[in-house]
Specification:
A two-stranded antiparallel sheet has the order 1-2. The chain has a two-stranded antiparallel ribbon with strand order 3-4. The chain is mainly α and 190 residues long. Helix content is 53%, strand content 5%.
């Protein structure tokens, strides 16, 4: 169980941060950048949720994704190699990926197929979800870069890939089930 009595510890004043296993890494380390970007995506989802009505069909699946993203941060903050943390690390598992896929399918079933790309916009919640989607895509790119140099849980990369898809569909739902989507018109303003 996490217990936060003190918010500042001063241990990061030297430009390093601690991983779950106790290892210290520079704050600019790729692993730190990756889970920091996951945290950023999570924060943007929170902003989007604040713009949604409480009865929205998106509230529950977005809350699950936010919780999963904390799991993902813990996963990424616990290297698979090296010093053991002394307990079973929290890892993203295939069932979390499958649940996001099911949420995508359920939400997408209520939408008309697209005939153009969608631009970020429409409702405030949709715009925030599009920002969260792009941040999740950045986190995915960083996770792939990290996987090229260190061992990471492959389910973590799969989860990030699905989450960005989920956020795209969620943005369309937040836009009155696609009715307020802002569509790209190629070459419109030439």
């Amino acid at each position: 169980m996490v217990k936060l009595n003190r918010i500042y510890t001063r241990t990061g004043d030297d430009g390093t941060t601690g991983l779950v296993n106790g290892e210290r890494r520079p704050k600019h380390d790729l692993r730190i950048e990756t889970y920091g970007t996951v945290d950023e995506a999570n924060a943007f989802i929170g902003v989007a949720c604040a713009a949604l009505p409480a009865e929205s069909a998106l509230v529950t699946p977005l809350a699950r994704v936010q919780n999963d993203l904390f799991d993902l941060g813990a996963d990424l903050a616990t290297p698979e190699a090296g010093k053991s943390p002394g307990f079973e690390p929290l890892r993203i598992v295939a069932s979390q990926v499958a649940r996001v896929e099911a949420d995508i399918d359920a939400l997408n079933a209520r939408l008309n197929p697209l005939k153009s790309f969608v631009l970020a916009g429409g409702s405030p919640a949709a715009a925030h979800l599009h920002v969260a989607r792009t941040v999740a895509r950045r986190a995915e790119r960083l996770a792939c870069a990290l996987a090229a140099v260190e061992t990471i849980n492959p389910e973590a990369v799969k989860y990030l890939n699905r989450v960005s898809d989920f956020l795209f569909v969620a943005a369309r739902v937040a836009n009155d089930d696609g009715g307020r989507d802002v569509l790209w018109v190629p070459g419109r303003d030439r």
